[in-house]
Specification:
The complex is a heterodimer of chains A (234) and B (245).
Chain A (H helix, E strand, L loop, with lengths): L35 E2 L4 E5 L4 E5 L3 E3 L3 E4 L5 E5 L2 E4 L4 H22 L5 H14 L8 E6 L2 E7 L5 E4 L1 E4 L3 H8 L9 H18 L7 E7 L2 E7 L7
Antiparallel strand pairs in A: 1-4, 2-3, 2-11, 3-12, 4-5, 6-7, 7-8, 8-9, 9-10, 12-13
Chain B lengths: L1 H9 L13 H12 L3 E5 L3 E7 L15 E5 L2 E7 L1 H22 L5 H17 L8 E9 L2 E7 L5 E3 L2 E4 L3 H11 L6 H13 L11 E7 L2 E4 L2 H10 L9
Antiparallel strand pairs in B: 1-2, 1-8, 2-9, 3-4, 4-5, 5-6, 6-7, 9-10
Helix pairs in contact in B: 3-4, 5-6
The chains are: A alpha+beta (234), B alpha+beta (245).
Chain lengths: 234, 245
Amino acid sequence: MNPDLNMNPHDDGRTDPYSPELGEITTEESDSENVTKTGTTTVGLATDEGVVIATDRRASLGGRFVSNKNVVKVEEIHPTAAMTLVGSVGGAQSFIRTLRSEASLYETRRDEPMSINALATLAGNFARGGPFFAIHPVLGGVDDEGTHVYTIDPAGGVMEDDYAVTGSGMQVAYGTIEGEYDPDMSVEDARELATKAVQAASERDTGSGNGLVIAEITDEGIEIEEFDALEDAL
Amino acid sequence: MQGNQQQQAYDRGITIFSPDGRLYQVEYAREAVKRGSASVGVRTEEGVVLAADRQTRSPLIERDSIEKTHKIDDHIAIASAGHVADARKLIDFARRRAQVERLRYDQPMGVEPLTKAITDTIQDFTQTGGARPFGVALIVGGMEDGEPRLFETDPSGTPYEWQALAVGGGREEIQTYFEDNYEDGLTLEQGVGLALEGLAEPDDGGLNPDGVDLQTVDEEGVLGVSQDVIEDHLEERDLLGGDDE
């Protein structure tokens, strides 16, 4: 199990480079209707100065019942990176816990933080390793190379872009952002655009709503704020 | 008599400390390294130089079959001294570990983390029953985030970082030479020269270019230096030795 491949004198030294160093990714999670899902609209926008991530706050059962109205769907996983919870809540939470501890272990051992590309690759490996891991997060972060937004799909696909949306409200939110995004925009303008995108999705997508959470990531760190009304964030 | 019997018992199992806190098998492994021919490493501003003495015991041996410097990945190489067979196991471990870094994180392996992965493995073999320590010392050199790095591993599994070092037979003499002659700000070319001077230090007879295995690692990658270039360097320094006897 140890991906550091320690060649133990009494085993054959073969290990799985795709598995976490601590614990393992379960592959038995089923995609049943009783599982709490985030439904969700999560938006990530990269600007020169930082990354803005915005999400709604609704969790639902089978897409027909609002099971929680105060979910914070964006979490810090690294000193300058955050990830959104999209899909099965249990799957997304354990995914985030695993990535957070891997990033921490990496940084403690090597005395330098993981790059965002390394973090995205690792996340893709873990998602790939668990075929029923029903998640589809946005990963945003800042490193020596600059600002980054990635999506990690349930089959382990890792794609970088200037902006990305995942969740059941993605088509509505993408419509809002399309044509409005500008790579040179300020963090303030990016906040506004991300808010509008989540607002539009909350109006039209039954899986999204109940306010807004915004995370702002710069090379200084991460700030996460919650808002009951979407207007308050503007 | 009794003391002698005790010592015999303490040096049989590697997992056993002697009453004065020594691990005899690890110390014997260090002796095995001293019996090997020397390998040296020099860190310069531009990259690192790894060189090894591979004088043969018979003119009939094919030189290229004696491997003392090894490419690990595009940006890291290792020179060894001591038991060749033991070195090969660690070399293969290092090559696999370097690829795991690419699979896992999509990035080249750092020289320091690779060295520590190797030394953690070496340490396993000093504390596990039924195992024997590695009778080999390695010089791990390469580029990490554009910076040249140079490390040593010893049979106890302790990592050290160096500007210039020697392992194997004649270590003390070569190390003293480096201590007297190493300067900051060397070019890679000057580093090759210093490495060859160090390697030639213990033997008054000079070096035969065929008996030197030399690789450099810089921004361009790992490069094996040809016998002609080595010969030019040796000639320039009046260190060119005759054919092997």
